[in-house]
Write a structure and sequence with these properties.
Blueprint (H helix, E strand, L loop, with lengths): L1 H18 L5 H11 L7 H23 L7 E4 L7 H8 L6 E4 L2 H9 L16 H12 L7 H23 L23
Antiparallel strand pairs: 1-2
Length: 193
């Protein structure tokens, strides 16, 4: 009986430590950087990461306060210093800076099986897609379309393929852009009528 009570107390304490946020955000941010080996290239990128971290930390606090006394909790993950809207704009993928956990086992499992760093994945930046398209055309010897409409349609298909490729790479698949990246998969895919 005593062993059961001690085990339960340890599990509860562990869960509280996993989901409780520090009072001092700077201390918590430094712990986050150490735990996830985050390195920033300059003071501006670190300030931006800290601002995103604070915003996401406050969101997690709010979500946890909305569910008082329940085992369901939210905890920050390695994307806590990123802005999901920026990532969507740059790569066309959806990330969440926090995880929703049901119990202490799930909280521990999520901490042990971490999300990959975006830097570790081969993602194409949508802000650089025009240059990527030009390189791709040269690499695969694609015909230079003479009609502006054909060129636009194939370019849009290429952009859509880049987003699909990013989503697959984010999901853990190792996908690269192939020679068919601009091939329309449906007739009149980009026409409205």
């Amino acid at each position: 009986m005593i062993v059961f009570i001690i085990t339960a107390l340890i599990k509860i304490t562990l869960l509280i430590k996993l989901v409780k946020l520090e009072d001092d955000p700077t201390v918590f941010f430094n712990r986050f950087k150490n735990n996830f080996h985050r390195v920033y290239f300059n003071p501006y990128s670190e300030q931006k990461g800290y601002a995103n971290f604070l915003k996401n930390m406050n969101e997690v606090k709010k979500l946890n306060e909305e569910h008082p006394g329940r085992v369901i909790a939210y905890q920050l993950n390695r994307y806590a210093d990123l802005d999901p809207a920026d990532i969507k704009e740059h790569f066309g993928i959806d990330i969440s800076p926090y995880d929703h956990v049901e119990d202490e086992k799930e909280a521990i499992a999520r901490r042990e099986k971490q999300h990959k760093f975006l830097e570790e994945m081969h993602l194409y930046d949508l802000n650089e897609v025009e240059d990527l398209y030009e390189e791709w055309v040269k690499r695969f010897g694609k015909a230079n379309f003479t009609k502006k409409l054909e060129q636009t349609i194939h370019y849009y298909r290429f952009v859509k393929t880049v987003v699909e490729t990013n989503k697959k790479n984010f999901a853990g698949q190792n996908v690269k852009l192939g020679a068919d990246a601009d091939v329309l998969k449906e007739p009149d895919q980009y026409f409205y009528g």
